[in-house]
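notes to self, project folder thing:

trying the whole complex as one job this time. last attempt i did each chain seperately and stitching them together was a nightmare. two parts in total, labels are on each line so i dont mix them up again. if this works i'll redo the older ones the same way
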Amino acid sequence: MKMDLIQPFINAADAVLSQGLQSPMTIGNLSMEQEAYRRKGVAALVWLTGDIEGRIIFDLDPATAVRVASQFAGAEVPESDELVKETVKELANQVIGNAITTLNDQGFHFRVHPPVIHTSERGSESSEDTEAMVLAFETPSGTVFMNIVLRYNRQHRGARTAASA
Amino acid sequence: MEQFAAVRRSKDGQPVRYLVVDDSVFARKNLARIIETFGGLLAGEAGDGLTAITEYERTQPDIVLMDITMPQMEGIEAAEKIVQQHPEARIVMVSSVGYQENIVAALQRGARHFVQKPVKPEVLYEVIKYVLGEDGVVAQAAGAGD
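result (full assembly):
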């Protein structure tokens, strides 16, 4: 996975989390994973299709998710509250939407599907051409993880280029 | 949250009425809180484009804040259908996906403006004043904008 695909996600997470939590965040661990994805807590999954395809999981451990939701709501939110999941979904939507905006303006065309709550404990294993990059963002509310599996869909991009020629 | 000088309808001095359309409950609550700081009134909510059309008919809002990516019917299509029936409708698209094609498509199909998420209240406030034009008036309340 190329870094130029990842950088927009880092920039978007920085912008969205810093503004929402009203505090600067730092980028922590950045690692590649080939093992099956293992959910940490409250996770939102977004699928992308088009010139670049794959999925992104936005994942917060339960305590962090509650702290983040409470910060956004401006009041204490209980762990069981649906608003915790909704907050994680909307954060995923905003971070990924902002990153996609940058990539689209660079000439990549794709569709973002609405985020869904990811409930299974594990995901499929990454293959060689779709290894996962795991980004960790350190915020005052805890660590926010983004697990990204993306690959270029050359067939789609080639077909689109040929059609517009 | 910062308070803004209230924006009211110039025809009767009443609060501006908003319809908020977003599939995310979190996003709707957040927009409702922002609207409150503008002195606005939440006239209705919808979680998808289809419901937005019926809610528009029911509530006849002054402003619609419309997400783009939603289940059943996306925001741009819903905006187009509302504007076809109500050319006077003032629809502001509010989406995290803010690339140029999307914005152009929304404007071509009847939306009046576009605001990217995460929504900055001061940006939305200016957009609301611009979209209302002469139909909106900023109340001169003591301490407003502090």
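what i see at first glance: The mean pLDDT of chain A is 84.
need to look closer tmrw
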